[in-house]
Every structure is written in C-alpha cells, then in structure tokens.
Amino acid sequence: MGHNKRTWVTAMFRIGISGSLTALNANAGSLFGTNEPPVISIAELEKSIDTAHDNTCSHIISLAGWVDSFFDDPEYTDDEVADARASVQQSVTFYRNLDPTFKTRVRASVNLPKLNRKLRLSFEGNDEWYSDSFIGGIQETIEESTRESLNDPSLRLLYLFLNNPNVDLGMSGGVRLSEDAFYAGPRLKLRHDLGAGWNAKLTHRTYWYTTDNLKAKTELRFDHLIGQHNLFRQSIRSNWDEEKHDDVGFRHTVTSSITQAFKNDSALRYAWSSSHQTRPDPRWTSTTLSIGYRQSIWRKWIIIEAAPFVTWEDQFGWDPKPGLAISLSTLFEKEPPETP
Questions:
Q1: Is the whole-model pTM more than 0.90?
Q2: Dihedral sign computed on CA atoms, order 307, 199, 173, 131
C-alpha cells in the first residue's frame, strides 16, 4: 500500500511538472510577442554593440565641435566645419600688482563656393602664426589694442587634395599684408577613433616664409566623453621657429582640461597648462591653473567669459602670480552647433 502511494505521488508530480512546462511554452508567444522564446543572435548582439559605439563616437565629435565653436578655438575656425565663420574678441587680463593688459582679436574664414569645400579663405587681423599666440597683440590700453588689432593682417588660402572623415591633406599659401611677406606649406589632419569613448586628432602645419624661413606647428589631441555633457581633453602642442631655434628650440605646451557643457549656452572649463622649451637647455618655463566660465548673454552669438587663474614662471622663480582674464566675443556663423 505504501509503495503504491509513493508511486501515485511521483506520477502526479511528473504530470504537474510536464503540464507546467507545456503551459509555459504555449504562453511564451503571448509573453514575448512571438511564437518562440526570444533568442538574441550573435549578429544582433554585435550590431547593437556597433550601434552603441557609433553613437558614442558621434556624441564625442558633436560635443568636441560645440566646445571648440563656443570657446572660439582657432582650430575650429580653420577647420572646414562651417561654410562661413567670423569672430571678434576683446579681452583684458588683470595680474596682482601689475597694470591690466588688453588684446583684440579678429579672424574669419569661408569656404569658397562651387569647389566642393576644397578651397577655404582665412583672414586674421594679427597673424598669430607669425608672431606668438601667447604674447602677440597684447597692449597696455584698450584703445591701443583696438587700433593694433589689424596691425599685422594675414590672408591665407587652403586647398584640400584629400578630404574625408579621417584624413585631410592640403596646401596652404598666404601673405602677411604688413610686410608683403608670402608663405606656403602643407597641412595634414588625421582623426582616429580609439574606442572606449576616446577620439584622437593630429594636426601638422609647416610654412615657409619669404622673410623668416621655416615655421612648424604640430598638435595632438585626445578627447574623451565623461557622462553625456563633459569633455576631457589632453593636448600636446609643439612649435618650432627656425629663426628662434638657438634661443628656444622646440616649445611644447601640454594642456589637460575638462569642459562641462550646460543647456543654457554656457560652459565651465577647468584647465592645467604647462610649457617646455628645449634650448638653450631643456626646461619647463611655466605652468597655469585656471577655471573659466563662459556664458551667452542677450544673444547666443554674444559670449562673455571670466577665468581666474594662477601662473608660475621659471623667470620669476616660480612664485605664484594670480590673475583674472575677462573676454567678450562676438561670433558670426550661419548655423552654429547646438549644445549636445
């Protein structure tokens, strides 16, 4: 009797399990919207991963482009991003125990029509390529700064032999109007997706001037997306001037920055920049820590920035020199990038 009871219980348990499995299979289609349980294939998984990767790359490029446009980066103006762009910036820098200094900067660029974006004309009021992007154009009064903003104008034409998302190769030629000095040389840009939310861009230019021989500039940038609206950038820039080779050699500038982009056309940038030169003896010459807040006012194309900073310089015994830089920029671009 006990044996028959155990047999009956075992049989009922098996029938119950079998019925439950049958019901689950029968209802799988209604639960998942198909007649079969959902199965993700390897191909679909790889496609989803590739889509996520492409979206991340596009977001990095979009955010980096907005940051460069909003902060009026010279590389953005020189790029073939916008068909036409111009900017005017007035800045003043205050140092402790020193008189303020002023700088006015004017630049513009336009893609010439009917040439499939292969020919670009650029203008600079003061040729920062020729002088010095750090000290060129600095004046003691705003009147002098405004008057000198077009003191050393330069016109440049860039023709691209090769122009695709990863490689730009072209030839530049121009003239410094103040001295009728002509210059020409190649320009190369390489872009590469490094994966894991990193992008890299290498830019190199070499110009031969009829008055001062060779000048070369190289910049390597690494951009990394942090969250949805924060961009980390590590850049290494190297300048070389044949005329100053014995005194300076190669001058390298290493900059690390994090930019937070906000929805109300504003951004906050934290930056640490250090400079190094190789002659007469290799040494670090300066380092600067800064925090800059940039905000559109009244109109999207009118932008003000305030950036407190501290600079340490070798020539002053590395004593800290605090300061404040304030700038007002007016940007002219038909369709500026929207905040990502």
A1: no
A2: positive
Span 84-113, pLDDT tens digits:
888 899 999 998 888 899 888 888 888 877
Q: What six digits make up the tokens of 95?
A: 């140092």
The label of the residue with tokens 């990767």 reads 53
CA 275 – CA 282 distance, rounded (Å): 11
How many Å apart are CA 311 and CA 247, to the nearest integer? 22
Evaluate whether 205 touches 172 at the Cβ level (below 8 Å).
yes
Q: Are 278 and 249 in contact (CB under 8 A)?
A: yes
**Domain spans in the chain, listed from the N-terminal domain onward:** 52-333
CA distance 224 to 230: 9
**Cβ–Cβ < 8 Å for 220, 202:** yes
pLDDT tens, 288-320? 999 999 999 988 889 999 999 999 999 989 999
Q: Determine the Cα–Cα distance for residues 189 and 201; give it in Å rounded to an integer.
A: 7
313 Cβ neighbours under 8 A, 6+ residues apart? 285, 286, 321
Bridge partners, residue 182, by sequence: 175
Neighbours of 309 (CB within 10 A): 18
Q: What topology is assigned to 52-333 in CATH?
A: Porin (2.40.160)
Task: Give CA–CA dist 74/218, Å, rounded.
Answer: 14
Two tokens at 288?
């600067």
Instruction: Find out whether 169 and 144 touch, Cβ atoms under 8 Å.
Output: no
Using CA atoms, how far apart are residues 111 and 78, in angstroms rounded to an integer?
A: 10
Q: Quick one: how many helices (H) and strands (E) in the chain? A: 4, 14
Residue with tokens 């969250």: 227
Other Cβ atoms closer than 10 A to 137: 23
Residue with tokens 């932008």: 303
